[in-house]
Structure formats: C-alpha cells, structure tokens
Amino acid sequence: MAKFEFVSKLRDFFTxxxxxxxxxxxxxxxxxxxxxxxxxxxxxxxxxNGISKRDIIAQKTLTVEDVKRxxxxxKEVSQKIEPVMAPAEDDxxxxxxxxxxxxxxxxxxxxxDEAVKNxxxxxxxxxxxxxxxxxxxxxxxxxxxxxxxxxxxxxxLTLSNILRAGITEKDYEKDNIDKxxxxxxxxxxxxxxxxxxxxxxxxxIVPNLxxxxxxxxxxxxxxxxxxxxxxVIFQKGDKILFEGEPVTRLKRDALRQAGYNVYELNxxxxxxxxxxxxxxxxxxxxxxxxxxxxxxxxxxxxxxxxLSLLIAFxxxxxxxxxxxxxxxxxxxxxxxxxxxxxxxxxxxAVILLSVMSVGYQYNIQYLVAFILLSILxxxxxxxxxxxxxxxxxxxxxxxxxxxxxxVLSIYILxxxxxxxxxxxxxxxxxxxxxxxxxxxxxxxxxxxLFESMFKIITxxxxxxxxxxxxxxxxxxxxxxxxxxxxSLMVSNLCEAAAEAIGADPILARVGALYxxxxxxxxxxxxxxxxxYFLIENPHNKFTPRISKMIITAHPKDGIExxxxxxxxxxxxxxxxxxxxxxxxxxxxxQAVKEEGAENVKEEQFRYAGPKPNTKETxxxxxxxxxxxxxxxxxxxxxxxxxxxxxKIIVERLNDGQLSDSPxxxxxxxxxxxxxxxxxxxxxxxxxxxxxxxxxxLQKQKINMPAKLLDxxxxxxIKQLEGDKNPPKEDKND
Length: 733
What we know:
By secondary structure, the protein is mainly α. The chain folds into three domains: 85-211, no CATH class; 267-456, Arp2/3 complex 21 kDa subunit ARPC3 (Orthogonal Bundle), CATH 1.10.1760; 462-719, Hypothetical protein af1432 (Orthogonal Bundle), CATH 1.10.3210. It has 32 helices and eight strands. It has helices at residues 2-14, 17-37, 67-80, 90-109, 114-124, 133-142, 145-165, 174-183, 191-204, 213-225, 249-257, 267-291, 298-317, 329-339, 342-360, 364-382, 390-415, 422-454, 459-465, 471-479, 481-501, 505-514, 527-533, 544-551, 554-564, 569-577, 585-595, 615-631, 638-654, 665-679, 693-700, 711-721, and strands spanning 47-48, 51-52, 56-57, 62-65, 85-87, 209-211, 231-234, 239-241. The protein is elongated, with a radius of gyration of 45 Å.
C-alpha cells in the first residue's frame, strides 16, 4: 500500500506544473550548454586519447595556421625589442652642476688656510684615483674667476650634449662615463680644461634614461602584430593524419577546418559552461519574476529560449576566425523588443552575450561592443510607434549606423595603443552595418511565423487586426451596424484612456473593436441595431429571464466566432471580460417587478465572467458602459456626462468588477477625465421607433432576417417556458 502511495505521489509530482517548469529549465540549460560547448569541448569519434583512429585525407586544399610556431616567432621577435628609454633627471643633474659651482666659489672666498680649503674640495670631489688630483684642486682654488667660469660654462654645454644623447644604467660605469664626456666635449677646450671638466662632470652625472614599461610593451606588441602567421598548406588528397599519429594543435585545427570537431571531451570545461549557463538563466528568470511578471508566461519564455539557442548556434557554425560582428544579435534584440519590451530584450541580450563570450572565447572588445550596441538598440526600439512594419527596417538601419560608429570608435581608441590592421577595421565596420540592416529584414520576415508558433500577437499583428477591412469587422459593419458604430466609439475611448495611464493603446483599441462580435449571432436583440432595421424591440415578447439569457450569451457567442476567425487569445480576453460578472440590471429589475424580489436572485442575472484582469480589459468594461449610457442621454450637459461617468465607475467598483484588475485609483481618475473630455462633444441620442413600423419598413424596403433566434437558443427558450412554441403573448398580459 505504501509502495503504491509513493508511486502515486511521484507521478503527481512529475505531472505537476512545478515539475514541468523545472524540467523546462533543466532542458534549456543542458541544450544551451551543448550548443556552446560544441565548439570547444565535444569531439567526433575519430580521436581516442589524443591518437588518430584512422587515416584522414584532405578533401579540399586547407591553409592552416601553425599557431605554436607563430606564437614562438612572436615571442622571439618580442624578446629582441630593446627596452624603450624615457628621459628623466635632466633638471636634477643640471642643478647639481650649478650647486657644485656655487660651493667651489664659496670655498674660494673663505678666509682660511689652504689646507682647509683643500680638504673641503676633497669632500666635494672624489679624486682618489685621479692622477691629476693636485692639478685639479689647485686649478679650482687658485685659477682666476674668469678661467673658472669658462671651465664651468664649457662643462655645462658638454653636460647638455651628454643629456641629450642620454645615459643608461649600462653606461653608468667610470670608463664609459669618461668616454661619454670626451665624445661630447664642446670645441675649443684646452688640455688643462679637459681634466677639470671631466672631474666636475663625473661628480654630477647619473643615468637620465629609464625604461618606459608602457612604451616598451606597445613596441613589443607592434612587433608581434607585424609577424605574419606561419601557415601550413594541405593540398587536396594529402593526409592530414595517419592512423596512430598523435593529434597536435596544428593537426587539430586542420581537422576542424576540414569539418571535423576533434577537441577532446573536457568534462571540467563542460561543467564550467553549464554553471555559467545555469547562473545566467537563473538571473534572467529572477529579473522576469520580480520586474517583468507580465512576461513570465511560457510563450514569452519559450520565444526567448528559442531565439537564444538560435543565436548561440549561429555563433557555433561561424568559420574559425570569422568576425563575430556577423552574428545577428540586432535581430534578437528587435524580435525580443517587439514580442516583449526593449528592457527585457536588453537584459536577455546581455546575459546571452556574456555566456557566448566565455564559451566561444571572444575578445573582450566584441563583448563591450555588443553590450553597448544592445543599449542603443533597446533605446531605438523603444521609440518605434508600430505604425507600419517598415519602421522595423528603419530601426535596423539606425542600429547598423550606430554599430558602425561604435565599432569604429573602439578601433580608433585601440589604434592609439597598438597597430591595428586597417583592412580588419574596414571589414568589421562593414559587417556591423550590414548586420543591423539584414537583422531588421530577417526580424520582419520571422515575425509572422513566430506570432503563429508562440501564439503571441505583436503590435504589428494588432495593427493588422485593427484594419477596418478585416473580414470579421466588415461582417460586423454589415450585419450589426449599430454594434459596429458602438465598437468604434468604445475603441476610441479605450485607446485614449490606455495611452493616458501608460497601458497598451493599440491593444486596447483593437480589443474594443472585437469585444461585441458575439452580437453577430443575434444582432436584432440588441437595442443599438434595432433602430437601424426599424423594428420593435423583440424583448417585449419575452420574459426577463429569457431576455437575460439572450443578452448574456453574447460573450460566449463571441468566443465561438473568435475561434472561427482565429483571433488571438489576448483579443478573446476582451470578449469574455468586458462585462465581467456584472449584473444585467434592466432585466433583473424587470424580473423583480414581475416575480417579486423573494423569487429572484442576482446570481441568476449576472454574466458568466471572468472579471477583467488587465488594465486594457478593465478600461473596456468602463468605456463600454459609459458610451452606451451617455449615448442614451438627450442633449447632455458636460456636468451630466461627467456625472454619468462617475456613476458607472462607482457602480463597477462597488460591485467588485474591477477587483482583479491592476488599475489604481489614480488610473481610474485619469480614465474618467479622459472619457469626459472625449464625450463632451457627443450628443448621440437613441433613435425613436416609428409609430407605424410596418409602413416604414415597406417604405424603406429593408429585408429583415427570416428568424430572430437560432435553433439552439429557440430550443432553450421552449424548454424554459415549458411550451413547444415561443411565447407570442405580450409579457405584461
């Protein structure tokens, strides 16, 4: 028994909605990991433990870079580059020479013994190894001022020459310093002055050239970039690998170019990729749950997953070394922006690009460029008004131009540091420009397909449904003209109110156009159509219960028609929710009068619902009632219009019909104000019935429907009345 209980619980778990969600999450992350890892971590069954299992012959000429030899050559070239030296300490050295001259002059002026002066000079000068020590000291102390000044002037000029040439640490050896001084001596220097100048300069000269690490690194990178790749050519028919031959990096790259993915399976790499994909997917779902709850539905997550896998797959199949700027990331952003919103598209793109950059080992430059381009794309897509599909092409062109400027700017900055091939810059700029344009074309072509696949209506799809030449709207216009006119008025009200409160105005307008299509089944039972056909109200012959059944059936009838014409679910919601669970008050009050309040329950006279659960459907509920009510007023004043609007809103609030909608009190106030502004100029009165209907009908030659009621409803009425025939007597008899 316990065993069966466990099996039952296990079955219930795996069939639960939570289990389905977890399975979808795991399935997507595993599939995305497999796609991304396929470039670097999977292999075909031609390699075993790094050894070829068979001979592999090139089916076409292959040119393969020997990466190992190229890198070795780059390393050698880089090592040969001498460090770049930068001048320093020049002012310090010159100031030391001036200080030394001043010190000697002060010693010469002192009124002390010669021995003391000699000792002080010995402190300033290191002449212990100098054979001309006595001569130099004697000259410094006893030469006349002009001679001493001349020696120091020539020493200063010589020092300038030396500093200009530069002194490195290697040069800073005594023998080398002597040579450097002699090689840079100014002209017209006597032999006596040479000894003194050398002695003076040896005291102040220090290395003035230091290694510029940054400039040295740039010089080495430029040298490396100048190295041409070492290429190995495999002619068609050459053996790339022999059976039993170890697979080197060169041979592995050749096999990949030939169409074999021969990387050894790297379980650690696979695990790392999966963790990254898992975290990225989890972060995206967290963002959606807390900030974009409206798009947490399976259809929105499904299209996000599908597009992500598609973009990742395109990244995999790109030829080795091909520019990543050809990946249609703008198409991903355009489609995601249209099917969700630009903000969601941007977050999804950033996470996807981050995962791809790690998995495909892209240069950080590409990641930065794509993220910045994603920001620009999201901004551009947020400005689209969705009037025509050509707007997408225009947006794609703008994205391409923005991408071109962005990539070019990045390369200009990079070129300031290292030498970049101009051909590469031209290629990438061209790729990113064309990518934006073609992505828009691709997105426009895929949009209808995705609308059908994922059951998501886009603003463009809504715009097409809102075309008054649509077959169903034409039918509504011909068969139920009063309802059609009413729907037009309501759609205008809904669009204006939705725009005022930040809801979707296109959705509100289109949903309102179709909300009453259920009246097509029995148009003559609705007062707005009766005046067009100049007929007496057929409800005068029915009991309130039968009339209620006919009237409240139009949302259900509307759904049947909507399914017949394949209207999307989002439009069907307007049909079912525009009355909510509201009370058919006219027929309820009539029933109370006829049967007594104790015999009539409100629940029997309410619509089936559900209540409106979006801002757009809630707006429609209010607009539908307001338009009908205001139209029934005779020459209403602005105050009467405003009072009627407020009355209807209060009734809906008190009845709890807006309890499931996200409308705030501020929204409701704005809606009321918008309706009042639009309806003030309207004075649509209900058309009075002609006194002699038969005569008028004959005059107008209007063909009436053969039957007011369809067979199903007629049978229901017979059953309700307990009679085989529809009631013919007046309901007041």
